[in-house]
Amino acid sequence: MSLILYGPPGAGKTALAHLIAEKSEAHFVSLNAVTAGIADIRKVVQEAADKQAEGGRRTILFVDEIHRFTRVQQDALLPDVEQGTVTLIGASTQNPFFAIIPALSSRSQIFEFKPLQVDHLQAILTRALNDVERGLGAVAVTVTEEARDLIIARSNGDARKALNALELGVLSTPPALDGRITYDLAVAEESIQQRALAYDEDEHYDTISAFIKSMRGSDPDATLYWMAKMLRAGEDPLFIARRIVIAASEDVGNADPRALFVAISAYQAVERIGMPEGGIPLGQAAIYVASAPKSNASYQGIKAALQDVDSGEILRVPDHLRDAHYQGAARLGRGKGYRYPHDYPGHYVQQDYLPRKRTYYQPTEQGEEKRIKDRLAGLRKYQGEERNHG
């Protein structure tokens, strides 16, 4: 079966593809999706078909950065992958369910790689220092613990970045009189550059999801971290502001109605003052929403009402609620029997506003919504008493 290996850079996708080819004794051909075209694909496929016809080894086609293939290029691969002319191993840093056409991804086993952990990187660096043939074992080098920890911390799970930093530091540091190179913290800081924040389409969706769930979960610290990550990655600040506005209404709602005003004010502030200063009101609004009492009763209410309109019987407006502001309306009975609430004590009078009873809004005990709940409960009690007396 063909494979798609998906994960961050330096996690071992290419290394695993080479291992598979070696262990299976297959003919291995590598293409990079950035530079390869349809002609290159057809050439590899034709050579694979010829080998197959001659009874030779099967061919593994490794496509690095396969997500960069256009739809046309991916379509060109599909028939030969399906027929088994080549076994495809694709490597991608982007989620294949977004980046690869469904026909190709559905015919491949997908494995997700995770960033390497601290102990993995420690093992890789140790092996590189000891390996005489492929590493730095032939060089007398001492790596301090602080330098090693910095390399690991700045590599963010990327083995290639860690190894490059180690090699660069060793090759650029002059040895002492005894011939030994000391790779200390200062060398590490010079050797490893600040990592560009990985933020592809997959990270976009995952990070905004974490941001929203952190606000909903009342964790202002996590909320700020995910916001900071998005801002540093170049996310549109107005996109972040829109998500805060939605969360203020969906997840806080009437438990604290001020959350919506704070969120909208932050949106307007970002529009007017721009970045980086706009990050300040964004942070304030996100903290307010995250820290506020939560209720999704309003959201659930409108959702239930929409479902009724979409799937149920469409209710007609009762005559007493219909528009009576035109000539002849009275002759049709429009507005007849309507009672104006402000003419009654407490600015309330019992009357039916739906032809059939529906309950969509069910307020909670959270924050301001408890007061709303108590008031509505009092009105409903009054309605019942009035009906009984009537």
Using brief descriptors, characterize the structure shown.
alpha/beta, Rossmann fold, 16 helices, Zinc Finger, Delta Prime, domain 3, two-stranded parallel sheet, Helicase, Ruva Protein, domain 3, 390 residues
Q: Please work out how many helical segments DSSP would assign.
A: 16
Write down the overall geometry: elongated
Compressed to H and E, one letter per element, the order equals: EHEHEHEHHEHEHHEHHHHHHHH
The residue fraction in helices comes out at: 40-55%
Could you name the CATH homologous superfamily of the largest domain? P-loop containing nucleotide triphosphate hydrolases
What's the CATH first level of the largest domain?
Alpha Beta
Residue ranges: pLDDT <50 for 5 or more in a row? none
Judged by helices, strands and strand pairing, the structural class is alpha/beta
What is the alpha-carbon Rg in Å? 32 Å
Biggest sheet, strands in spatial order? Answer: 2-3-4-1-5
N- to C-terminal separation? 76 Å
* Secondary-structure arrangement, i.e. CATH architecture of the largest domain: 3-Layer(aba) Sandwich
